[in-house]
Amino acid sequence: MRTLRSIRHRLALLLALPTGALVLIAAFGTAAEATRHSAAGRTDQRVALAVTTQELVQQLQRERGLTAGLLGGDESFRARLGEQRATADQARQRLDQALAAEPPGTPGVRAALGGLGTLAALRGRADTGTASRAEALDFFSQAIGGLSTAAFAEATAQDPELQAALTTLRVLGEAAEAAALERGTLNGVFAAGAFGEGDYPAFVRVLSAKSNALAQAPRTATAARSAALAAALRSPAAVAVAGMEQRALTGYSGGRLPVRAADWWQAASTLVDDLHRVQAEAAGESRARAAELRSAALWSLGRELALALVAVAGAVALGVAASRSVTKPLAALVDEANELADRVLPEAVARIRDGVGTAEDAVLPGAARGAQADELAEVAAALDRVSATTVRLAVEQAVLRRNSTESLANLGRRNQALVTRQLGFLSGLEQVEHDPGVLANLFELDHLATRMRRNAESILVLVGERSPRRWEQPVGMGDVVRAALGEVEDYRRVVLRQLDEARLDGGAVAEVAHLLAELIENALAASAPDTDVEVFARISGGGYLIAVMDQGRGMTEAELERANARLTGRESFLVGRNGLLGHYVVGRLAERLGARVRLAPAPVHGVTASVLLPAGLLTVDRVAVAR
Amino acid sequence: MTEGFELGSVVRPFVLTAGRTRPVRDELRLETLVSAPPAALAAPLGFERHRIVELCQSPRSVAELAALLPVPLGVARVLVADLAAERYVRVHELAVGDASVALLERIRDGLLRL
To answer: Shortest CA distance to A492 belongs to which of B17, B86, B85?
Structure first.
């Protein structure tokens, strides 16, 4: 994986797992809170729907009571019944409107509303008196029971407090319904003046249901609701209701009941309304609790999210800081290493090579300083050791090179001295020899010794020594060129085509001759044995130009370029190949003499080596220029 | 400057004759006189050959020429013989009689040295 090469990426990978786990946990927590939040919201909506439903129930209860009264024979209820029907229809419309928003529990309530489908028909029959009281009571009670059940169906909550409030709400509804049913039943009975068939058992059932529900309510209700309920049950209306109940109970045996239906209605309605008010308060409590839960869930949600964000941000910040703490010192180390490699070490080595400094002088920056972490300090220390070793090796190499150079120079000087003495001795023999055969042999020896001297002097040139052969007087260029010829093997193939007369400084004679000998030797080696090598020597604008022209196979552009680089004398012979020593010798000599040497393609084929000697080396004899 | 050893000539002598040691004519001896006509001065001769023609404007012996150039005697003989063959110099033949007496004397001297 390419992207994981850097430390930054590896640290990021390391942090990814815990950060991811953190995010996951936070997500679970957030989701749970979100669920609680929406559950509380749904409960709130259910309670709101239940309240709206209860309002319709309350109106239906009233209508039931009034209908029972009318059917019981009390015509005074007819007018009030008309108003009550309108109020009930309005409550129905409000419930329909609430249902249009499809709050939770809508399907159940809608189904329960189906029970009111025949309401209009019942109302008509109630008006004409064709419906029986029991039938009317039964119709309304079923519709009300269905609506109440639907309103509280599935209205449960995780929160115990809310659950208790919901239970209270339901129980209070049951109590109110029981009270209302009692009101309706007795209203009919009192309107009729006596218990009809089946009225009394129904009344007793209702009474027991009412006391049951009222007994249940305080179990779950809050203290405030219990107190409100107790207050409602102790009200004058409640006391009056209890009294009328008692008379109804005792009036069972038959005969006319001594209670006016209107009085009963008034007192019972007050009690029922009180109960409904207590229920409404309980509903308010439930909604308040739901809202409380909802906002608590919202807070938790926000807190969880904030915590998760802080944790992730913290992890990222820590990761970045850790990454920085590693990469920054590393980058500093890299800079120092680069500085060491690019500048400090080369300079130290160069100083040692030039003999200016020693290993101790080589001031190296301590890479180990500045790095704080242990591992990085170790890297820095290793870097320091590398540089120290490098300097030490460089010193050793420099010393080795100096020693071998000195040995070479020493050998070269002794060799050169011996050969020079040999040549002097040969000169003496040649001077007095009469016999051509012996002289020819002496000349062979002379030629060999001359070439040996050139080799000895090549060594001196390569190690930077000067030739000890120096003349006091200027020497003619013709003699210089012919001295060069004596130093090459196949000199008979060399033709002097042109030779402008000039005199060369005596101190440069041996070196110019040596330089020319190397170039002529190369030209001879590069051309066929039956071809000539031509030499042109003439005075040119900037000095004295000598061209050595062969007719060999020539050199390619690249070869010429490399050869010319060697001829500039800037490359050390120690790094080159042995076969090209001649070029290094020429380069060194040219550099020392201030001469410019260049190889170029010859006009036809082969190579032309041109040497431009600086004017400072010459004393031009105008008279001698003539051929 | 020369550091204890003889510097010697710039040009090695074998180069002057391209290694030849045997003259094209054999009768040249140390004392043989050579002269050159003035016209030969204008001839296209280089280096020592030109110098010989210059020196031989008055008759010189071969030994004299070798010392003046200066080159080994063997080299001088080759160069003079070449010039004589090309007719730039003239070799003055010695009388046969004188030559035979002188020759006999040299033979005797040589034997005595042995």
So the answer is: B17
Q: Which amino acid is at A231?
A: A
Alpha-carbon dihedral angle through residues A326, A329, A330, A333, given to the nearest 10 degrees: -160
Chain B residues with CB inside 8 Å of A516's CB? none
Q: What is the interface pTM, i.e. ipTM, of the complex?
A: 0.81
Is the predicted pLDDT of residue A359 greater than 60, yes or no?
no
The verdict on a CB contact (< 8 Å) between A479 and B74 is: no
Chain A residue at shortest CA distance from B66: A431
* Residue A309 CA: distances (Å) to CA of A14, A35, A313, A317, A558: 19, 20, 6, 12, 67
pLDDT at A361 > cutoff 80: no
CA angle B110, B111, B114 (to 5 degrees): 95
Chain A residue closest in CA terms to B67: A431
Please state the domain extents for chain A. 2-309, 392-468, 476-625
- Matching CATH number, A476-625, of 3.20.20.80, 3.20.20.190, 3.40.190.150, 3.30.565.10: 3.30.565.10
The per-residue pLDDT for B97 is 53
Contacting residues of B for A427, CB less than 8 Å apart: 6, 8-9, 13
Whether the per-residue pLDDT at A356 is higher than 70: the answer is no
Set of chain B residues whose Cβ sits within 8 Å of the Cβ of A446: 12-14
Alpha-helical (H) ranges within A433-572 are 436-462, 477-486, 509-526, 557-567
The pTM is what?
A: 0.54
Among A423, A439, A470, the residue to mutate for chain B (most B Cβ within 10 A): A439
Contact residues, B window 30-89, toward A, CB-based 8 Å cutoff: 44, 46-47, 72-75
Asked if the peptide bond before residue B70 counts as cis, ω within 30 degrees of 0, the response is yes
User: Tell me: the pLDDT tens digits for A406-431?
Assistant: 898 899 899 999 999 999 999 999 98
pLDDT, tens digit (0-9, with 9 covering 90-100), for A205-240: 888 888 888 888 888 888 888 888 888 888 888 888
Query: Are B19 and A440 an interchain contact pair (Cβ–Cβ within 8 Å)?
Result: yes
| 3-class SS of residue A197 | coil
For residue B34, list its beta bridge partners. B60, B91
